Amino acid sequence: MLTMIGKRLMFAIPSLIGVVIVTFLLTRALPGDPAAYFAGPAATKEAVEQIRKKLGLDKPLIEQFFRYTNDLAHGDFGNSLTTGQPVAAEIRNRLPASAELTLLGLIVSVVIAIPLGVLAATRPGSWIDHLCRVTTTAGVSLPVFFTGLVLVYVFYFRLGWSPAPLGRLDVFYSAPPTVTGFYLIDTLIARDLEAFRSALSQLILPATTLAIFSLAPIARMTRASMLAVLASEFVRTARASGLSPATVIVTYAFRNAMLPVITTLSMVFSFLLGANVLVEKVFAWPGIGSYAVEALISSDFAPVQGFVLTMAVMYVLLNLVIDILYGVIDPRVRLEG
Amino acid sequence: MTAQPLLDVRDLTVEFTTRRGIVKAVQHVNISVAKGETLAIVGESGSGKSVTSYAVMRILDRAGRIAEGSVMFSGIDVKAASEDQLRDLRGREVSMIFQNPRAALNPIRKVGDQIEDVLRTHVQQAQVRDHGEKAIEALEQVKIARPRERYHAYPFELSGGMCQRVVIALALACNPQLLIADEPTTGLDVTTQKAVMDLIVELTRRRAMSTILITHDLGLAAAYCDRVVVMEKGRVVETAKAADIFANPQHPYTKKLMRATPRLGVSLRDLLPEEESAAASFASPRVRGEADTRSTASGESQPLLLVDKLVKEYPRQGATAVLGKLFGRKPPVEPEMFRAVDGISFAIGHGESVGLVGESGCGKSTTSMMVMRLLDQSSGLIRFDGEDIGGIAPASFARLPQRSRIQMVFQDPTDSLNPRFTAARAIADPLLQLGDIRGRDALRARCEELATMVGLPHNLLDRFPHQLSGGQKARVGIARAIALHPKLVILDEPTAALDVSVQAVVLNLLQDLKARLGMSYLFVSHDLNVVRLLCDRVIVMRTGRIVEEGSSEQVLRDPRDDYTKELLTAIPHPPLPVH
């Protein structure tokens, strides 16, 4: 098992090197001059030149690249031009925010979608099957910013049940000491139940928004995959041997149906982690997606490169976890490891 | 027969709700099985034999339902029973063995656990000390070596025959009174088939169980059953004692089935229904004569295909060896090679057909792939029509003119046709790739000509594969293979997926085409009986080597090698009908 993990990580190295090169070149190829942007609209030509020199942008591309990789090797992702903060620190602060939100959204979505998909598959044509179809169609057809705004309008503005959509904690509470970066966990570690409640209430609406969106692919995949497995011959054998419906559905059908669902889950997770910019905007969430987009708009190289690299590492780790999960579920995969 | 049969099916009608309305899959079927009796239900695909057995266990698809009639199993009305009662019945009183053993087992659960699932459902904990031990005992009874080890195996780690043994263990674990075996040996090698059938019979006899054997193979039914029920299109057409039905078949359909079953002492023409056989035999003397002159004419020249000391090796290690090399950690231990084909030599003359026979894993398919130039050999020579084609890489062979001279008919007529191509497009495909016919009309004319040759009505040319029957798809596959006037056609079990009556027609068609077009055949098959009908010579392969070679008649009547003898005795034969 450990050798397999080691091997997989080694195989990830070439792709990470590729990501470093491509992001570096791409950010350089982007239209827009960071020096001019940084100097402001009123700056003179000399001032812009001066800033360019200070940023090292006047050097040849190859030299810039070596400086960049050298810094990377020392764990230095560079500084953001707009905020002046080190990129590594910013990402370290913001990644847990995004991850907490995405994970919670995904957990909510899985808890609803998988039973829904299983029930729909075991009772095709019933009301629950139709409910599954309607929910999933609605889930994908409504854009996240729209569901987010509707939720904010109803639950904050109209009903007043949830707090103002302004970040991860109510302004009256201070952030708990960082252990995991997940406020829900950190507040519990600090035994600050009030802050926990506040963090949770801030999370509910954006997490629900994400859950509604990610419900569709997971429920659909569960339903389709369950239907295929339920029609398979070994399920028929299990039925013909008189096994109870619970055993047939859980032990025989569901475990086999999980494989494609897990793949979908990993895709949805990695997609949401980097791409839920709109949700982060609507809820003023200090996440990594909105950070990267803002940096991109202002031609701020360092955060963009840092973001892409972080995401690449996340993908590699996520894929590794998925592969291990696959091996746990399916003995046929284990052999090839 | 005893007064009270164990299973009594009366006037059973099963309906399926489909998009085109209600389809009656089984109509007014009466079947009864006495205690300890072995009954065969014989019929071709679509005869409703499987549906009948599913109805007995009430495991029909959602769309199916028992519309009429009654099913009584030892005094229990199965049709009226609740789902809970049925669950007690299934597995404990009636159990079932399915066709494809590998698919019938949960791929990601240990076989021992699967047997235990059944035991736990039906046997009280108090009655046995340990379910695990009981499961191992069940594996032992189906003669699985080292059952304690195999308990922890997953289905993919076991061979097909071994999987079928596990399925049998699963079915017999709770000592049921009735076993329904639905084509239990289809897809298994003949020797494995014999072992599995002998095992089923031995175990059921010992426990005084009743058995229903569902099969398309009359030979199998005759060899193992007391009574035979023949079904056609959802109806029972004949029920009789096994001995009687072969000696004196009553119904025309039974007679037709009997005729179509390949057996000793009959020629290819005899397989066809009587009236067609008579029509065909007019053509056959002329055909024979033609073939004879051709083979004598080319007798002195070199053979069409010459294979010499052909070897195909595969490395035994998987990806780990490659990785080890990549990172230079361990120097690769002696590369252990597995020889799939181990130095075989044979020749095929002009206009000759040669059968390549052996069980799965003997290397016959690997050999045909190498001759076909779809696979590179490790060493050895392949000469085709005086040219050394063994040196041509498979990747580039497809574009060479030689490609059109060696063509292939594949095993599965459905899977070997592109589902998005019409029959005409499929037949025209080689013409478009390699032929010199250009223009829509000329192509169409050639397609129609080919369709006529293989006996495919022209109005079917615009249909897609799913709109054609198995036999029609086989004809499309054959038309595609002969489109470019090949000299050698490799037939890879072309009739394995077909019903016997269709198989008879297709084999006759292949025989006629060979004579008419002067082709040579390399017929790859596991079925000696079928090979004998079509081939002049037979090559028997085992573990990558040729164990016996000779004329078909000689090999079948007087086999020299022990393995050939074993193969021959494993084939179940129906008693010869009295004409």
Automatic annotation (TrEMBL), chain A:
List all membrane-crossing ranges.
Answer: 101-122, 134-156, 199-219, 257-279, 307-329
Give a Pfam family name: BPD_transp_1
Q: Does the keyword Cell membrane apply?
A: yes
* KW Transcription (keyword) present: no
Keyword line: Cell membrane, Membrane, Transmembrane, Transmembrane helix, Transport
Molecular-function GO term, any one: dipeptide transmembrane transporter activity
* Gene Ontology terms: cellular component: plasma membrane
Topology of the protein relative to the lipid bilayer: Multi-pass membrane protein
The protein's superkingdom reads: Bacteria
Gene3D superfamilies registered for this protein in UniProt: MetI-like
**What is the annotated localization of this protein?**
Cell membrane
Q: Where is the ABC transmembrane type-1 domain?
A: 95-326
Q: Which InterPro entries does this chain map to?
A: BPD_transp_1_N, MetI-like, MetI-like_sf
Q: Which family does it belong to?
A: Belongs to the binding-protein-dependent transport system permease family.
State the name under which the record lists this protein.
Peptide ABC transporter permease
State the species of origin: Bradyrhizobium nanningense
From TrEMBL, chain B:
Entries under NCBIfam families matching the protein = PRK10419.1, PRK11308.1
Q: What does this protein do?
A: Involved in beta-(1-->2)glucan export. Transmembrane domains (TMD) form a pore in the inner membrane and the ATP-binding domain (NBD) is responsible for energy generation.
The places in or outside the cell where this protein is found are: Cell inner membrane
Per the record, membrane topology reads:
Peripheral membrane protein
Q: Where is the ABC transporter domain?
A: 9-258, 305-568
What is the recorded name of this protein? ABC transporter ATP-binding protein
InterPro entries registered for this protein in UniProt: AAA+_ATPase, ABC_Ni/Peptide_Import, ABC_transporter-like_ATP-bd, ABC_transporter-like_CS, Oligopep_ABC_C, P-loop_NTPase
Q: Please name the SUPFAM superfamilies in this protein's record.
A: P-loop containing nucleoside triphosphate hydrolases
Identify the keywords attached in UniProt to this record, alphabetized: ATP-binding, Cell membrane, Membrane, Nucleotide-binding, Transport
Where does this chain mainly localize?
Answer: membrane
Q: Does the keyword ATP-binding apply?
A: yes
Q: Which GO terms describe its cellular component?
A: plasma membrane
Q: Which protein family is it in?
A: Belongs to the ABC transporter superfamily.
Which CDD domains does UniProt cross-reference here? ABC_NikE_OppD_transporters
Which Gene Ontology terms describe the biological processes this protein takes part in?
peptide transport; transmembrane transport
Name one molecular function that GO assigns to this entry.
Answer: ATP binding
